[in-house]
Amino acid sequence: MLIEQRPSGDSEVIALVVDQQVELRARDGGREGHVYAVDAAARYLVAVDGEDAVACGAILALDIDAAEVTRLYVRPGHRGRGLGRRMLAALEDLAASRGHRVLRLEAGVTAPEAISLFLGAGYRPIPRFGRYVKYEGSRCFEKRFDDPGRDVRVVRRAAPDLAVTELVALSADETANRYSDTGARAFPLDPRAKFVVATVDGVGAGCGAIQPLDDQTVEVKRMYVRPAYRGNGLARRLLAALEDLAAGSHYLFIRLETGARQPESIRLYESAGYRPIPPYGPYVHSPLSLCYEKLVIAPEPIASELS
Q: Which of 33, 56, 122, 209 could form a disulfide with 193 if both were Cys (CB 3.0 to 4.6 A apart)?
């Protein structure tokens, strides 16, 4: 599944929006006959499964700080697979990359599954805004990404966990975009890998794992923080939690690999005390791989966050 940006005039964007409007009008009885068309000012994302466009969503700037999530739609045959959550997460990341720190959205009372999705993703009810003020059947929501009072936790999770699955999929999408001209950079994950997840107000914001290489060494894998949550030290907390997990499991060394096109990752690892080493294992013949190692000495206080 690939999620990619498309222009508002794209034929598949238009088809998805039309199908969404037909479904919504059938549910709400027409909302006084009003139909929202494709907005040329919005920035659209489309999910592609094989050669088929199966979902869409957009963000529309309201002001410098705020944007609205709109046109979020998944074709009926692709529902129940977490695609709505992935699209919403991708739209949040797109908004964050454009400097928005507040996201608002609207759902009708005839779409309880959408309302449940938004509440589960950390959106809070707010009064109706903008064009929705006159619609009694509208329910509006907001999510902020700059609230210092947010509940941030780092917790252990099993690999089949839904948050882990979604975060790993988002990480794969971003990696594929960065290295699209070089072929796949999909290195295998050991089934014995142990994951930690960073949550913000109960929503998965980042993840990482360690997997054993030998009796003394583990490798950091699947380190990822969603763009909407970057710049707040979350990656450093995840890395520290993984080091604590390794030390608590009596490993002496941690190794990791990152790509040459990920300067923010390189800065994180070098500033955390990792030293460059020659490529090892599956990275020996990967020209864009950079490898690092660190001696695990003792757990840090952040270990108390793991549960």
A: 209
Give yes or no for residue 128 having a pLDDT over 90: yes
| 32 Cβ contact list (under 8 Å, min separation 6) | none
Q: Which amino acid is at 140?
A: C
For residue 5, what are its two tokens?
Answer: 């940006």
**Secondary structure element (H or E) that encloses residue 238, with its range:** helix 234-248
Residue type at position 276: P
Question: Rounded CA gap, 122 and 142, in Å?
Answer: 9
By residue count, the chain amounts to 307
Q: Determine contact, residues 70/60, Cβ cutoff 8 Å.
A: yes
Helix, strand or coil, per DSSP, at residue 128: coil
Q: 41: which 2 tokens?
A: 């000012």
Q: What is the mean pLDDT of the chain?
A: 86
Q: What is the C-alpha separation between 143 and 204, in angstroms, rounded?
A: 14
Burial class (CB in 10 A: 0-12, 13-18, 19+), 285: exposed
Q: How far is CA 187 from CA 2, 215, 259, in A?
A: 18, 21, 12
Distance CA 73, CA 58 (A): 10
Q: Are strands 102-108 and 66-74 parallel, antiparallel or unpaired?
A: parallel
- Angstrom distance (rounded) from CA 152 to CA 203: 9
Strand partners, 6: 44
Determine how many CB atoms are found less than 10 A away from the CB of residue 231: 12
pLDDT band at 307 (very low <50, low <70, confident <90, very high): very low
Share of the chain above pLDDT 70, in %: 91
CA 142, 146, 149, 154 dihedral sign is positive
User: Does pTM top 0.85 for this prediction?
Assistant: no
